[in-house]
Amino acid sequence: VTGAPGAGKSTLLDALVRRLRAGGETVGIVAVDPSSRASGGALLGDRIRLRSAGRDAGVFIRSMAARERLGGLADATRAGVTVLGAVFDRVFVETVGVGQSEVEVAALVDSLVYVANPGAGDVLQFMKAGVLELPDVFVVNKADLGPAAQRTAQELASGLGLGERAGGGPAPPVLLTSARDGAGVAELLAALDRHHAQLLEGSGLRERRARGREGFVLEALERRYGSYGLARLGGRGAVRARLREAAEASSFALAAELGAEIEEALRKPAPPSR
Amino acid sequence: VLRGLFGEYRAPTGVAARPEAQPGERTAQVRARVHALAPRLGRPLKVLVGKPGLDGHSNGAEQIAVRARDVGMEVVYEGIRLTPEQIVRSARDEGVHLIGLSILSGSHGVLVLEVLDRLRKAGLEELPLVVGGIIPESDAEALRRAGVRRVYTPKDYDLTRIMDEIVDVVAESAPAA
User: Fold this and answer.
1) What pTM does this model have?
2) What pLDDT digit, counting tens, does each position of A229-238 carry?
């Protein structure tokens, strides 16, 4: 779940969680907030609105500071999501994002929900921010504000009809919700279930998770060893191919294994440059 | 009506402007201590700030939360009107190094003791707890005897000093490097 600050992501997520809990599903949440560039500290405020976890053992929330990372995730987010996924029926990641920064988030999750504020902008603004390309479900929250929310939903829908989507396929749904009075929450849940069913129909889910895994391992290796280190394994393409071969292994084990190989290669003299 | 002429009063909520001009050098010193503690903790210092009980005077807790962020801590701010159960649950799930409670309702005795009791039951008796509020010295003494590491009152307006002491408290309880 991503979107601009104040769009109502946490409140909407809280409404979703209550509904899921009523149906007996357990929920794990990783809530990522940005770190201050100036102090390195972070104000993690999502628990204020995610109130459903109070005394319910079926809900778990962990707040994470993004630390030095841009792009809406923390280093430990993937690990957190993996662990929670082993324990809870559904896992949500909540993060601030306003467009292109969602690439990493999209690579981590099966379904990406973008929450917009009523009056957030017109078609062109959504298009230039790049928010239309990745999300699988669009939500205009605060529908109780009336016409402003409906107009934003129309702007989003017409923008989605115009532009080209990263993954191709049909235009994603645009929903109106009100976390305040609960309107549209059931529809949002249904849209998420529909998207998941679509992914399960073909090889969509497997491909999406494989892409996410490749992105994660490549990024982890590149951050630690740079493009110079990656070149020692034959470059990004070669690493991708190896990751696809080892489709069953865990991404964390693969990152560690390939990292060890790079370190080994770096100890030897550099190959002659061509 | 007067409201039409003069506008409507909106009671201030949220964090007001800083009550004190923060001398940059002291802030930087505390920040350096916070950052220096991270290798020992294995990650940046993370604290939970919340208000148990029924008073809604959130300004103090929010000043503390923002100040803690400014000296480099990762602050889970949980908001107001929490139960001791919620606070202990959050502290456990979030993996914080310290809990800071703000209570201005006068019910610090009952609430703090219950938090301490629940921390023990959750196996978190080592997790340091500090409390701020309108707390008479005799009560403060009782709270400290019960295991509260520091008690702050409105006399402690130097937020940077409070942050410095929070670093002391966490450093005392953290495993040696």
Assistant:
1) 0.88
2) 999 999 999 9
